[in-house]
Amino acid sequence: MIRALTIALLIIAVSPPALGQIPGATARRRRSVESEVRKLDREWGEAILRRDAATLDRLLADDYTRTEPSGETIDKAQEIAETKAPALVSAVEFLRTEDVEVKVSGEQATVTGIVVVSVRFDGQGIRERYGYTRTFAKRDRRWRIVAARLTRAGAGR
Q: Has residue 135 got a pLDDT over 70?
């Protein structure tokens, strides 16, 4: 009886679902997801600079919400409209992310970092630094940004 129980436990331990829990396989999957999410986060920044509404539409979930430092919330339609707005067309000159970290938990990933942006208003250049958090969720086999939050960061590089 003990021998049969031991054999059954060994079979369960090496079954395909259990193999997915091997630390090396889990670490490889996490690194792969982290890499994919970092790439999508860079695409977001490039889309803002290029005023690429189609890319933002692809990256943002339909229920996306961004919270501004003031507490104001912006939905997907507003984010895309801001990108197309004439004021923005002439305003964003530079955007760079720094100190980016990605944390993955199942079908969600959180990206944190600093975004440095230079804008031009009324002919005057302004450089701002914001801490940001972007939350990605895997939906229909694709990673989408479901939420973002900006906070003012001090002067910097």
A: yes
**Dist CA 107 CA 120 (whole Å):** 38
The domain tally of the chain equals 1
CATH number, domain with residue 53: 3.10.450.50
For residue 14, pLDDT beyond 70: no
Is pLDDT above 90 for 103? yes
Q: Any residues with CB less than 8 A from the CB of 114 and at least 6 apart, and which?
A: 97, 98, 99, 129, 130, 131, 132, 153, 156
The conformational region for residue 95 under phi > 0 = left, psi -120 to 50 = alpha, else beta, is: beta
Q: State the residue range of the domain holding 76.
A: 27-152
Mean pLDDT of all residues in 24-33? 81
**CB burial of residue 45 (10 Å; 0-12, 13-18, 19+):** middle
Residue 91 lies in a domain: yes
Domain assignment of residue 41, yes or no: yes
Q: List CB contacts of 30: < 8 A, sequence separation 6 or more.
A: 104
